[in-house]
Amino acid sequence: EAGVAQSPRYKIIEKRQSVAFWCNPISGHATLYWYQQILGQGPKLLIQFQNNGVVDDSQLPKDRFSAERLKGVDSTLKIQPAKLEDSAVYLCASSPRVYGEAFFGQGTRLTVV
Amino acid sequence: DQQVKQNSPSLSVQEGRISILNCDYTNSMFDYFLWYKKYPAEGPTFLISISSIKDKNEDGRFTVFLNKSAKHLSLHIVPSQPGDSAVYFCAASAQGAQKLVFGQGTRLTINP
């Protein structure tokens, strides 16, 4: 079974630029998550989708971050404009259920300079 | 508001001995707990979980213990092996909220 795929693996941008990350979850997984992991901290949930509907986006900085999940499968996370404090690893995860363990991709390491 | 806390940033254990990683939580609504393992440049990998209706769950060398009254859980690895060297995250969820809330992680180093 293929795992969660994310791209790109690494991205370096200047502040105020925009960036987009892509995620392809495990086939058949209805729940998809985007997490932000800042160095030295645990992953923090940004947004959770159930199929193509948003379940929780309470910690998403909506003035600069946006996410969508097309047709309940792939998802993109966008940051516009980026700030220095957005430097982090962005992790996508999926789950076959709404509750329980999630399976993570390798993440995208973003550096904002 | 840190609802899940791992107070030890790092732990060093000799190969063959027992590793014990600890986690505390504050939200009494949490009813499902998980441990993830993370190697550098990789995403977290699910290791073991426990429901609040149990106080122990075992899978090979890994055992998770849950003390609901103390709001504390621990992961025991025995015997510890060099490949166990990684960052371990504790996570929790509440059935109504669904999302996983993670601790800060503990870096485990197994010394030969």
Would you kindly provide a written description of the structure presented here, covering whatever features stand out?
The complex is a heterodimer of chains A (113) and B (112). Helices cover 0% and strands 50% of the residues of chain A. Chain A starts with a strand and ends with a strand. Chain A has 113 residues and is mainly β. In chain A, the strands form 2 sheets. In chain A, strands 2, 4, 5, 6, 9, 10 and 11 form a 7-stranded mixed sheet that branches. Chain B has 112 residues and is mainly beta. Chain B is built from no helices and 11 strands. Chain B is globular, with a radius of gyration of 13 Å. Chain A binds chain B through residues 4, 31, 33, 40-45, 48, 55-56, 91, 93, 98-107, and chain B through 4, 6, 32, 34, 36, 41-46, 49, 89, 91, 93, 95, 97-105.
Please report the distance between the alpha carbons of the first and last residues of chain A: 37 Å
| Portion in strands of chain B | over 45%
How helix-rich are the residues of chain B, as a percent range? under 10%
Indicate the overall shape of chain B. globular
Compute the separation of the termini of chain B in Å. Answer: 38 Å
Rounded mean pLDDT of chain B is 94
Which radius of gyration of chain A do the C-alpha atoms yield? 13 Å
Please, what is the oligomeric state? heterodimer
Residue share in helix of chain A: under 10%
Helix and strand string of chain B, N-terminal first? EEEEEEEEEEE
Largest sheet of chain B: 6 strands, mixed
The unreliable regions of chain A are none
Report the count of strand segments of chain B. Answer: 11
